[in-house]
Amino acid sequence: MTIPEVNWSKHIAPLIARHCQECHRLGDVAPFALETYEDARKRAKQIAQVTARKFMPPWKASQPVSVFQHERRLSAAEISLFARWAALGAPRGGDWTNSRTPVEPPPPDLVATMPKPFEIPADGPDLYQCIAIPVPLKQNRWVRALDFRPGNRRVVHHALVFAGKPDQAVYPCFGAPGFLPARGLGGWSPGNRLSEFPAGTAALLPAGSQIVLQIHYHPSGRSETDQSSVALYFADERPSRTLMDIALGSNEIDIPAGEARYQVRDHFTLPVDVELLGVIPHMHYVGQAIRGIATTPQGVRLLIQIDDWDFNWQDRYWYSKPVRLPAGTKVEATFTYDNSTANVRNPSNPPKRVTWGFGVNDEMAGLHLQVAAVRPEDAAELGQALWGKMMRTFRPLR
Q1: What interhelical angle do 76-87 and 44-52 show, nearest 10?
Q2: In CATH, what is the architecture of 110-234?
Q3: Model confidence over 302-333: pLDDT tens digits?
Q4: pLDDT tens for residues 149-196?
Q5: What are the start and end residues of each CATH 2.60.120.310 domain in the chain?
Q6: CA 290 to CA 309: how far, in whole Å?
């Protein structure tokens, strides 16, 4: 059977520009660039294999296409093009100029840079570091978007951005940033670019606050330094809606060594009508699956399903259209863990007992539902209910 003609210039180059070059470009997070024909030609079989397995591009949510914004998925036809191109020996075709360069964000309102480089040793355990950056703000501002800029992509794994007044300038931290009140401004993980809040919402950056970068560093095999920064974009006016976080999770995690299907669950009943704008899932290395559902008077709705959790690819999932959930809706999350030898991401071999904790080899369960009250006057009632939920599940550090 003759394989239909597929070549680089007409078929493959546009696909790679659209789906791959966000990460696979010089100086970015991917281990190699795919910017030229030669870059791709020598990896044609590998590209065909990883796209056929849907390992690349990385996208963990298993819902149908078009549920979330900016989905990194290939269609069956696009996957077939990669396979046919590799089978034909990766023909070039005519010349092709990449007219699609990754879109750079507009000029920011403020750039906060680490005051001095942080040193990362050549080897040893991963480091979780909080680094405070003074910012010259004399009045409250509302952050509508941020762009975290890793200073050294070889060692920066991911980052969270907070605003507040920590007691120290540089200190170890994991999970919570170690001070109150701590206002979350956003985060970054591989493949992410500009992080924007949904329309009508923004995060408060109080006057006199510092920007605190919580960065996960992983040693590269040689001594390195990093001096990351974050660009902030301010809203012109106070947001019309309050974005609130419904944190579903559990700190009652105690996974026996060898247990292949351990589960914890959590739920919350909405006291008011809300619009669900996005979800942010979180587990560690023995995490396997996350499922979030909403039970409404009309029935059960799937909110998020991840069947192959990977700590290295943590996304924020924003819906293409807000999901309306009426008062009385029960939102639920189920977290599944595989602490057996069958889990290739298990950091312990042989497996060890895993309990809840902030360390990377401990475990967590989190599904953060990003919501806004349909009626602004209901935000206070929702906030009180969420505060009560948090206090009921509070667990002192041991």
Answers
A1: 150
A2: Sandwich (2.60)
A3: 999 999 999 878 888 999 999 999 999 999 99
A4: 999 988 998 899 999 999 999 999 877 788 888 888 988 876 677 888
A5: 110-234
A6: 7
Counted residue by residue, the chain has a size of 398
The sheet with strand 156-164 has its strands ordered as 170-172, 127-134, 210-217, 156-164, 183-188
Going from the C-alpha of 360 to that of each of 182, 254, 287, 324, the distances in angstroms are 21, 15, 12, 35
The mean pLDDT of 119-139, rounded to a whole number, is 93
Query: Which pair of structure tokens corresponds to residue 10?
Result: 């007409």
Q: Copy the structure tokens of residue 68.
A: 């979330």
Q: Output the six-digit token pair for 132.
A: 């405070």
Q: Where in the chain is the domain with CATH 2.60.120.230?
A: 244-393
Which residue type is seen at 6? V
Q: Counting beta carbons within 10 angstroms of the beta carbon of residue 342, is it exposed (0 to 12), middle (13 to 18) or buried (19 or more)?
A: exposed
The number of beta carbons lying within 10 Å of the beta carbon of residue 300 is 11
Rg (CA), the chain: 22
pLDDT tens digits, 250-294: 999 999 999 999 999 999 999 999 999 999 999 989 999 999 999
CATH code that applies to domain 244-393: 2.60.120.230
**pLDDT at residue 99 is higher than 60:** no
Confidence of residue 93 (pLDDT cuts 50, 70, 90): confident
Peptide bond before residue 351 is cis, with ω within 30 degrees of 0:
no
Provide the percentage of residues in the chain whose pLDDT is more than 90: 67
Q: In one letter, which amino acid is 320?
A: S
